């Protein structure tokens, strides 16, 4: 019952935010404002429903230290995607033709912030956290990662390989990041940094949702295995490789901090653990 109430509450906020963002998507400045508002709404609803159903504060979205943790997460996500672009660029598959649109990038800040916050609250804050309490960290990571990947099959230029790639590089990696830090600000930052770098900076296709108009005017060409084709660089083997590597790093950190929940223990995950980055 707790899971159902939490899931329905955040899903309602997710739906409201999504409808509002889509309604203003042709206006970059309104998209910025509405996207940031949608992010704040879903975080507020998550904190409220956790207090109501679990009789505790949702410490994984506590405001103390949120800015720094989100900032570190953004750097990790943006750095990870930049590494993908560096590999594509040095092999001649990504070329910058000039400057793109600053206003377009501003709109994408709001759009990507809304998407990152709502998806992290749904998939890591509710699904992963509660499934982990019953099945343990590793099974919860595998199951919610696959669900996260499959959800991207609904996108415009979705492919089965794209869904598999998303499951590995994002679904598994972000669940591992949450397990390591027990902090949604970190995973939201990683998610936002990756998406904004992809669309808002390098102007690539994000998850098969069509081209983005970001800070750079660029073109991509080459084999789908490297570029991701119409699905975008998230379908690149470079992205999968970097995501898998970071998943292992976060799982090592989670194990070091004693955050791994064994299968069958039914021990509540320590969602209130301090949010820190790898030492």
UniProtKB/TrEMBL annotation:
Protein name: Type II CAAX endopeptidase family protein
Transmembrane segments: 7-24, 30-49, 61-85, 105-123, 135-154, 160-180, 192-216, 236-254
Species of the source: Streptomyces violaceorubidus
Domain CAAX prenyl protease 2/Lysostaphin resistance protein A-like: residue ranges: 106-196
Family annotation (Pfam families): Rce1-like (PF02517)
Keywords (A to Z) from UniProt: Membrane, Transmembrane, Transmembrane helix
Matching InterPro entries: Rce1/LyrA-like_dom
